[in-house]
Amino acid sequence: MNTAQKAGAAGASIAGLFAALSIAAPGLVRDEGWVTVTYDDPAHGAALPTACAGVTGAKYGVKAGKRYSQAECEAMTARAMLDHALAIQHCTPAGLPTKTHAAFIRFT
Prior knowledge:
InterPro entries: Glyco_hydro_24, Lysozyme-like_dom_sf, Lysozyme_dom_sf
Distance between the termini: 32 Å
Number of strands: 3
Organism: Phenylobacterium koreense
Protein name: Lysozyme
EC number: 3.2.1.17
Number of domains: 1
Family: Belongs to the glycosyl hydrolase 24 family.
Helix content: 55-70%
């Protein structure tokens, strides 16, 4: 595979990833809810502060008792979804249907 073919394959992979994210995001927000104030995670309680569309972790700036603007929530949720999508890229088969890929992203 030459350099141009590799670049084309990488571009297609990135395009597929973002297509799947665009399908996954609305469902994730609908299922998780959109909460701009930190709340206790339903499964882990106060031990796991949660905000926006189910985002957890200090990595994303989630802190107990904090309020987030719409823009902050959008950025945190997008970053978390992209991180999760990239984390599973190595174990999802090439050519996976976009809706199936979106479902895997939502699951993670």
